[in-house]
Design a protein that fits this description.
heterodimer; A: alpha+beta; GMP Synthetase, Chain A, domain 3; four-stranded mixed sheet; 1 helix; 22% helix; B: mainly beta; eight-stranded antiparallel sheet; six-stranded antiparallel beta barrel; 4 helices
């Protein structure tokens, strides 16, 4: 992980987080390592946390989370609802 | 091995002959038989191990407090363990109360005593607004009880009073920002509030202990904080909380913008940290530390798979306090 790739991911995330947070099911947007095939890689990307993962066919087009934004990878993780504990 | 058994027997004999004298020395908390560690490496030499609250340079110790290097032909080893406490249930009443235990405003369920902080020499209990200030609804001076009400705490268990809280702005962005306020801010006349709708950074509050001897800085299962740490992706972290006790994990996300449910209302937080260290209801208010016991965050929210914390510097800046550390506190 280079500081540069982290910084770039941060900038892209800040530009797009409002539109991501407006999509159905999204509870959080952050910066993290992306997974491929369930295995964590060293690639820094935008991580979108959702209440539940939904099949693409059940989502309205505007609620679909893109796999990549600008040139930064986007990973979707299922966290459930986030509550004050 | 036979030689080991002999060496152990000899060390035990020497230990028994000397232990009452050693236990009377300042700083000594335990005496036992173990392997000697030299330069951080464990050797095979059996010795008398003396545990002390903290290691001090010889020059700072009077003759009477110096542990001899050799006793009756057996080597000694001095190790720093800190104070040793009876293991305690974090949901029970504890005096002095230590971070990691249950507490809360008298009208809530229960949360966690995060750590001790100080301002101008006055020590305060740090936790969340929603634990100490009942999610903005409390009055300054309200009773804080330990354990929290859900764990049986009543006014008879009062440990302190609410001193200060940073209100959490519930609701979505765009509320409460009049054109006038925006203009004032753009002109630099009004500073932005710490927590704005859609842009909260902290859920924090402090309570003033009724007296200084009711609290102790040693976090259950972790120890006294050594300072402040910085984190990046993958940094290992730990917390000690009222419900799940000591849990460890790593930083999984940085710069997190997150919608957090407070009952039925939503508060959006920005610039938060996410970890996979486990937590559940009641753990709110726990301090999150790195493995060098440096405080990195204040836990306040989570789901079944993730835990969210405020970066500790935001909390300290908002409340104008400093974390009480081992070097700064009286032992």
């Amino acid at each position: 992980m280079s500081d540069q790739s982290m910084q770039h991911a941060l900038e892209v995330k800040r530009r797009h987080e409002q539109e991501l947070l407006r999509k159905a099911n999204v509870v959080a947007v952050g910066i993290g390592y992306c997974r491929r095939g369930g295995v964590q890689t060293r690639e820094v990307g935008i991580v979108v946390s959702v209440k539940t993962k939904v099949p693409l066919s059940d989502l309205k087009p505007r609620d679909v989370i893109p796999a990549q934004i600008e040139d930064v990878r986007v990973d979707v993780v299922e966290t459930g609802e986030i509550r004050a504990l | 091995m036979e030689t080991d058994r002999n060496a152990i027997a000899l060390a035990q004999q020497v230990k028994r002959q000397n232990e009452s004298r050693l236990m009377r020395m300042r700083n000594v908390v335990a005496v036992g038989v173990g392997f000697k560690t030299v330069g951080g490496v464990r050797t095979d030499e059996v010795c008398v191990v003396v545990s002390v609250v903290n290691k001090l340079p010889l020059v700072q110790l009077p003759e009477s407090a110096r542990v001899p290097g050799v006793l009756g032909g057996v080597q000694t080893d001095v190790v720093e363990t800190g104070l040793i406490f009876a293991l305690q249930d974090p949901t029970e009443k504890m005096r002095p109360a230590r971070p990691g235990v249950s507490l809360g405003h008298y009208q809530i369920t229960a949360g966690t005593f995060g750590c001790l902080v100080q301002r101008n020499g006055q020590v305060f209990i740090l936790s969340n607004n929603h634990i100490l200030a009942n999610s903005n609804k409390a009055q300054l001076g309200d009773a804080i009880v330990q354990p929290g009400p859900h764990d049986g705490g009543t006014i008879a268990d009062q440990i302190g009073t609410l001193e200060q809280f940073i209100p959490v702005s519930l609701g979505l962005p765009g509320c409460g920002c009049s054109p006038f306020a925006l203009l004032m801010r753009r002109l630099g006349i009004a500073k932005p509030a710490i927590n704005e709708p859609g842009n909260n950074t902290v859920d924090c509050a402090i309570a003033r202990p009724l007296s200084a001897d009711l609290v102790h800085p040693d976090i259950l299962n972790i120890g006294i904080p050594t300072g402040l740490g910085t984190v990046t992706l993958g940094t290992p972290v730990q917390k000690s909380g009222r419900t799940t006790g000591l849990t460890t994990g790593e930083i999984t996300q940085l710069d997190v913008t997150v919608s957090v449910l407070y009952g039925v209302q939503v508060a959006v937080f920005t610039n938060q940290l996410m970890t996979n260290a486990g937590s559940q209801g009641g753990d709110s208010g726990s301090a999150v530390l790195d493995m060098d016991r440096q405080v990195v965050g204040l836990l306040f929210a989570g789901s079944t798979t993730s835990t969210i914390m405020n970066p500790i510097q935001f909390v300290l800046d908002a409340l104008q306090v400093q974390v009480l550390t081992a070097s700064g506190s009286e032992l």
